[in-house]
Each structure stands twice: as C-alpha cells, then as structure tokens.
Design a protein that fits this description.
GO terms for molecular function: adenosylmethionine-8-amino-7-oxononanoate transaminase activity; pyridoxal phosphate binding. Homodimer. This is Adenosylmethionine-8-amino-7-oxononanoate aminotransferase. Belongs to the class-III pyridoxal-phosphate-dependent aminotransferase family. BioA subfamily. The protein is of the alpha/beta class. It has two domains: 148 residues, Alpha-Beta Complex (Aspartate Aminotransferase, domain 1), CATH 3.90.1150; 239 residues, Aspartate Aminotransferase, domain 2 (3-Layer(aba) Sandwich). Helices cover 36% and strands 17% of the residues. The protein is built from 13 helices and 16 strands. The strands form four sheets. A seven-stranded mixed β-sheet has the order 4-12-11-10-7-5-6, with helices on both faces. Strands 1-2-3-15 form a four-stranded mixed β-sheet. Helix 4 crosses helix 10 and helix 7 packs parallel to helix 8. It is globular and about 55 Å long.
C-alpha cells in the first residue's frame, strides 16, 4: 500500500512524490490508530480536529449502518428526508440561527456564507483580520491571510478584501480603535465581516481576546454589515464553550460549521443564518449534488446527540488543565517561542519552522500521532483522550527539546 500510495496518491499540502513518509493506517479504535506495521499511536489530532468522540464509536457506527440500510442518498432538490430535517432542527436549536444550508465541506460552507452576504447586500467586499484561515476554495482563500497564509501563490487570482492586523491576545484599545476606523472607512462597500471566533486555527493557532469579537458585532450593527462566524474549527466545544462566539456572548448573522459535525465520520458542513438574512437572500444560488446526504446527516445527528449527553465541558476542562500542566516544561526549551492552551487545544510555537518529518519521528517514538506545520507543534485530541493525554504532552515536550537552539 505504501508503494502504491507513493506512486499514485496526491496528499494534502504535499508534492508528488511526497517528500516525507506517509504511514498506512489499518484500524482506528477509541483514541488510537493502528498502523499496518502493528504500531499503535494515540491520535493527538482528532483527524484534523473532527473525531471528537474518538474512532469506531458504537453509537455512530449504528447510526451509519441503520441509515445505509434505508437510504444512502437522494437528491435534495425538491426532495427531503428525516435525517436532514432533524439535523437542521438540532443545529438551529443549538445556535439560535433558524435557517440551515447543508453543504459538503467547511470550505464550501464558507463559500455559501459569502454568497449569502453578497446576494443580500449587493456588495462584494469583505472585512477580516490577518492570520485567518477559512478554507482552500477561491472565495475562502481570498479571506485567508494574504501574505503569510498558505495561499499566497494564488494572490493574483483572488478577490481583494479589507484586512486589519492580527488581533492581539490581550485587549488593546488602540487596536480596537483601528478596527473602528477601518470598518467605518469601508462600510459603504462591505457586505460582511468574517472571522474565526477567538481562535485562528490553521493560520497559526492564535488565540485572541473575546472583546474584539464583541467590538466587531457592534461595528457590524452600527454600519449595517453582516457578521459571519467561521466556527468550523471552534464549534462543538473545542474551545471550552459550545461555540467560539459564546466566549464573547454574541450571535453572528451567519455561521459556518463543519469538521466535528459528524464526529469525524463523513464530510458534512452547514451554513446557518438568521431569518432576516434568509428572507433577504431569497433564492440562494448554490446546490451541491450531495447536499444533505442522508448518511452524513444521520451520523451527524447521532454525534450531536452524543455530545449533548456526554459531559463534554468537564472533559474539555480536564484536557485544558492537563495541557497546561503537561506542556509547562516545553516553554523552557531553547527553540520555543510560546506555549499556549485554550480548551482542548495545546500549542507549542517555535522560533523557526519545524522539520515535520523529524518532529513526527520523535512523537511517534513516544506512541503519538501529531501533524505539525510551519512553526507549530500542537494537539487537538478527542474529548475521550483520558489518561493518554499525558503521553501526548510528553511527546510534544520531547519534540520541542529536540529542536535545538533558536
């Protein structure tokens, strides 16, 4: 399989053939991945932050199998079905946003949100902040960081939007004043403000003060601009609150969800909006072939039901405390710039970009799977990680110590 993979498969953010090793997984159970060579690794990534309940969960397996025996898929144009309707009702109840568009992936959810804003307002510029990441499709790429983001190669082909600086970790009145000035100066051409609430994910695992999110909500209201919250990475408890917006006590006009929506089982996303947005848009010009897929909707419904039943807030609180405790020593490593923790997110930021293969070699020797990038060695483990969290933090600390001086 490894030889065939190397010959044919193009992996994300990788060249052909891949420059580093690609490991064949034969089974996933609980919080562990079993490789084809028999090694077991604790998954500190939740499969890019999606598998919050762990792998091979009997409730989610059953939901998928039961739905497959009834109906795997049916077009959503002019037809509907119970799993999608129930899921939309659950999401509306959880978020306070009553209108739900079921999309294929997080990037598509962002594209749909942008279309909603453009159709409603008749304007075609967005306001956002540096350091953000919203997906790999063209509309989403255009609101990612235009200089330091991973999409700078496409800058000439992307729409030009309005960017403020990256929001500071602590509240700074001067930065808030600049937000005021920039939004006021461009309000006449802005359809919406789009941000990741409180945590900027793939743009650098940066945490910022919730007061800035409150200020953006106030500015959107003052100038008649929509607020889009990209909760694809922050939704469903990852930051310690059910949604990132809850840290600031605000509700957006449009919200994007994905990743953990199905518990890591299938690709599914959702774009939710207020009644006012839905009525103003009218006919939304978007319609994925696999929109509202019954299998994905059924497993998403089971995952959200499981989330409501489990003590996720206490679990995430224990993970946060364990990450703070377990990563404390890494701060003294000579190559480390910063160590930070929020909810079930633990980050070691280094002074220089890390050698991904070298870091993975260290953590895999400790029985852990991580996927570092740029200057970040980080973890977003499943909520069910339990005592295996200590193994993750030990592996991360060992990787940080192996970096050498800055």
């Amino acid at each position: 399989m490894a030889d065939l993979d190397r010959e044919h498969v193009w992996h994300p953010y990788a060249a052909l053939p891949p420059r580093g090793p690609v490991h064949v997984v034969s089974r996933a159970e609980g919080v562990r991945l079993t490789l084809a060579d028999g090694r077991e690794l604790v998954d500190g990534m939740s499969s890019w932050w999606a598998a919050i309940h762990g792998y091979n969960h009997p409730r989610l397996n059953r939901a998928l199998k039961d739905q497959a025996g009834n109906m795997a898929h049916v077009m959503f144009g002019g037809l509907t079905h119970e799993p999608a309707v129930r899921l939309a009702h659950t999401l509306a109840t959880m978020t306070g946003l009553p209108k739900v568009f079921l999309a294929d992936s997080g990037s598509v959810a962002v594209e749909v949100a942008i279309k909603m804003a453009f159709q409603l307002t008749g304007k075609s510029r967005l306001f956002t902040v540096r350091g953000g990441y919203h997906g790999d499709t063209f509309g989403a790429m255009a609101v990612c960081d235009p200089v330091n983001g991973m999409h700078h190669l496409f800058s000439g082909a992307l729409a030009g939007h309005v960017f403020a600086g990256r929001p500071p970790a602590e509240f700074d009145e001067g930065y808030a004043a600049r937000l005021d000035e920039m939004v006021a100066g461009h309000a006449h051409e802005l359809a919406a403000i789009i941000v990741e609430p409180v945590v900027q994910g793939a743009g650098g695992m940066h945490f910022y003060h919730p007061a800035y999110l409150r200020r953006l909500r106030e500015l959107a209201d003052e100038h008649g601009i929509l607020l889009i919250a990209d909760e694809i990475a922050t939704g469903f408890g990852r930051t310690g609150e059910l949604f990132g917006c809850d840290h600031a006590g605000v509700r957006p006009d449009i919200m994007c969800l994905g990743k953990a929506l199905t518990g890591g089982y299938m690709s599914l996303a959702a774009t939710l909006c207020t009644e006012r947005v839905a009525e103003g848009v009218g006919v939304l010009m978007h319609g994925p072939t696999f929109m509202g897929n019954p299998l994905a909707a059924a497993v998403a419904g089971a995952s959200l039901e499981l989330l409501r039943e489990r003590p996720w807030r206490e679990e995430v609180g224990r993970i946060e405390a364990g990450l703070v405790r377990g990563l404390a020593e890494a701060a003294d490593a000579p190559g480390v710039k910063d160590v930070r923790v929020l909810g079930a997110i633990g980050v070691i930021e280094t002074h220089e970009p890390v050698d991904v293969a070298a870091v993975q070699d260290v953590v895999m020797r400790h029985g852990v799977w991580l996927r570092p990038f740029n200057r970040l060695i980080y973890t977003m483990p499943p909520y069910s990680v339990g005592d295996d969290l200590e193994r993750i933090t030990t592996a991360m600390t060992a990787a940080a110590r192996a970096l050498g001086p800055a």
